[in-house]
Design brief:
Length: 367
């Protein structure tokens, strides 16, 4: 039986955490990188090999990736899970949280059924380095097409979000200059007004006018206002998502089936599918990450018995190391991407996939 070293576990853990959320295919990279390095890496880290612990290892890392997503979106998942249970209790779907909960469930069913039935066939047939490289190129073309042929509705949704984002910034700018110029003697009321201008509401816990603000208190109030604004924006985003309906969510979620092919990114194809259905790029990214969480978590949990059984013998320390690195990388990645997709496109990832895929094909063919 092949073995996994701590160095291999560390590298794979970092790659898993980053590429699972970046639209560049984690499975494609986990197939290609060992083949490109060669030697013991190609032997130890082969997803298509019989009785290899590698597949169980990388899918087990999904648990850490899913936990990172849950940590980042924990407020949203509290709302969504609460909406699910309240919909069962009340036997109706009225609130945004109730609707979104069932949209996620419906969108997850297709990939869950296909994955359970055909995961082995997909892995054996397509888990080969050259084929993974080919699908990585295809993934790049999908991302490029998603940006090149965006619908008018999706572009208008982007423009609306950009216009909404400019309004609080314009109101907050003058107040920010006044606040920064009078920090030592600024009042809590001033901080509250600045926070309200930035967040569209009042800052909880503001003192009466004339009270001197302590720097720590001002900092805490600013953080509280930022959290309130972020929570409000999340609810607004979910409201927009629920407007697309259950059928649309099912269609977009079905795109995740393509990610069973090594080289095709789950988040990438879901984002493209969402934009084709009229979502803004930012909302498409959010829906993609929300959809990914239960799928990634379920895939990891299903492989835990393999890791606790004979396939995990001798590599459990490596699993822990890889999981920690994967979780940290995933959390940092989702934080970066949620801000990135507010203003930027999928095109750089498309270029990367095409270049990396073609380079891998040439190298592996001539090797």
């Amino acid at each position: 039986m092949s073995h996994i070293t701590y160095l291999e576990a560390s590298v794979v853990g970092l790659i898993q955490g980053v590429t699972e959320l970046f639209p560049v295919s984690s499975l494609g990279h986990n197939v290609l990188i060992p083949a490109l390095i060669g030697g013991s890496w190609a032997t130890d880290l082969n997803v298509a090999a019989s009785e290899s612990p590698y597949l169980a290892f990388i899918v087990g890392l999904h648990v850490a990736t899913a936990i990172a997503l849950l940590v980042y979106f924990w407020r949203d998942w509290v709302r969504i899970i609460g909406g699910f249970f309240s919909s069962i209790r009340d036997r109706r779907l009225e609130t945004v949280d109730q609707k979104l909960a069932w949209m996620i469930i419906l969108a997850t069913i297709p990939v869950g059924l296909v994955g359970l039935r055909f995961e082995h066939e997909f892995r054996v047939l397509f888990g080969k380095p050259v084929r993974a490289a080919i699908f990585l190129v295809i993934n790049g073309l999908i991302l490029f097409a998603g940006e090149k042929f965006r619908t008018r509705k999706s572009l208008e949704a982007d423009a609306e979000l950009a216009a909404e984002a400019e309004v609080p910034e314009q109101h907050a700018a003058p107040r920010s200059r006044t606040s920064s110029a009078t920090v030592p003697g600024a009042t809590v009321a001033d901080a509250a007004v600045a926070g309200a201008a930035a967040g569209g509401g009042t800052v909880a816990g503001a003192a009466a006018p004339g009270a001197t603000a302590h720097p720590v208190a001002m900092h805490a109030s600013g953080q509280r206002a930022a959290r309130q604004m972020e929570a409000a924006r999340a609810v607004q985003a979910d409201t927009r998502l629920t407007k697309m309906g259950y059928v649309q969510a099912l269609v977009i979620g079905s795109a995740q089936i393509l990610a069973l092919l090594a080289g095709i990114s789950r988040d990438g194809v879901v984002m493209v599918g969402g934009m084709f259905r009229g979502l803004s790029r930012q909302d498409a990214a959010r829906f993609s990450f929300l959809l990914s969480t239960p799928v990634i978590l379920a895939a990891g949990v299903l492989k835990i018995p393999d890791l606790t059984g004979h396939l995990g013998s001798g590599i459990r320390g490596q699993v822990i190391v890889g999981s920690i690195l994967s979780g940290v990388a995933a959390y940092l990645s989702v934080r970066f991407l949620m801000k990135y997709f507010q203003t930027r496109t999928l095109t750089p990832f498309a270029i990367y996939c095409v270049v990396a895929g073609l380079g891998s094909i040439i190298y592996l063919t001539l090797k």
